[in-house]
């Protein structure tokens, strides 16, 4: 297929996209740009080369099928694949059409799963515990730390930050601290006031009104 100025512009822009993706996803993801107008020499750019291919290599079966059929799926995501040396991969292929609806390029991502599967195994091993161990211990924050953690959790559940809590939210917070016994912690009101950046009087008033309600 003869390249038009539109094709050349698309391919030029896609080279920048491939370069950016390659730098962002290095070193675990191979990024390949295929020029489907020249299937015998389709690979126009390859970043983080994991498959051992080179620029000028021919299109894959998927590339040939897409080039021959404008109705072929434009995005095929997360399909299983294998590198030439047997490593398992997860691939995504995105077809690029011109203004006439013909496929002229494909941008492909091939993720090496070997490292991630090894890492998952190591994390599973690292996170395992001996349920038969005789030691019985809990690490639970107490005092001021427990109050601050409860406030952080409350704010997160309400989609805000501790210092941005509105009046009604502060009063609901005080009720929660009361119900969990945290308002009985020594100097609890001072801790809350400092963490919310409000006066002690405001905190006492919020607590008093909430109790009355």
Describe the 3D structure.
With 213 residues, the protein is an alpha+beta fold. The protein folds into two domains: 5-119, PAS domain (Beta-Lactamase, 2-Layer Sandwich), CATH 3.30.450; 143-212, no CATH class. The chain contains seven helices and five strands, in the order αββαβββααααα. It has a five-stranded antiparallel beta sheet with strand order 2-1-5-4-3, sandwiched between helices. A hairpin with a 5-residue loop joins β3 and β4 (88-97). It is elongated and about 80 Å long. The protein starts with a helix and ends with a helix.
Produce a short descriptive summary:
It contains seven helices and five strands; from the N terminus they run H-E-E-H-E-E-E-H-H-H-H-H. The chain is of the alpha+beta class.
- Give me the Rg, rounded: 29 Å
Q: In percent, how helical is the residue content?
A: 40-55%
Low-confidence stretches: none
Overall pLDDT score: 90
Give the name of the CATH architecture of the largest domain: 2-Layer Sandwich
Task: Domain count, please report it.
Answer: 2
SS-based class: alpha+beta
CATH fourth-tier homologous superfamily of the largest domain? PAS domain
CATH class of the largest domain: Alpha Beta
> What sort of overall outline do the alpha carbons produce when their principal axes are compared?
elongated
Q: What is the ordering of alpha helices and beta strands?
A: HEEHEEEHHHHH
Please report the total strand number as a whole number: 5
Report how far the terminal alpha carbons are from each other.
77 Å
């Amino acid at each position: 297929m003869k390249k038009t100025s539109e094709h050349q512009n698309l391919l030029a822009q896609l080279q920048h996209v491939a370069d950016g993706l390659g730098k962002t996803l290095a070193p675990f993801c191979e990024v390949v740009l295929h020029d489907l107008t020249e299937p015998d020499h389709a690979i126009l750019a390859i970043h983080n080369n994991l498959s051992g291919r080179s620029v000028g290599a021919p299109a894959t079966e998927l590339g040939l099928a897409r080039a021959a059929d404008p109705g072929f799926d434009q995005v095929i995501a997360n399909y299983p694949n294998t590198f030439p040396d047997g490593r398992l991969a997860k691939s995504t292929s995105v077809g690029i059409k011109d203004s006439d609806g013909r496929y002229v390029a494909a941008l492909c991502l091939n993720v090496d799963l070997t490292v991630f599967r090894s890492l998952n195994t190591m994390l599973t091993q690292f996170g395992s515990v001996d349920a038969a161990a005789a030691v019985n211990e809990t690490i639970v924050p107490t005092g001021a730390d427990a109050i601050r953690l409860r406030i952080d959790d409350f704010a997160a559940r309400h989609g805000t930050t501790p210092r941005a809590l509105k009046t009604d939210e502060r009063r609901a917070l005080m009720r929660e601290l009361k119900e969990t016994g945290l308002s009985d912690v020594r100097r609890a009101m001072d801790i809350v006031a400092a963490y919310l950046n409000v006066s002690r009087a405001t905190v006492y008033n919020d607590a008093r009104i909430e109790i009355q309600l």
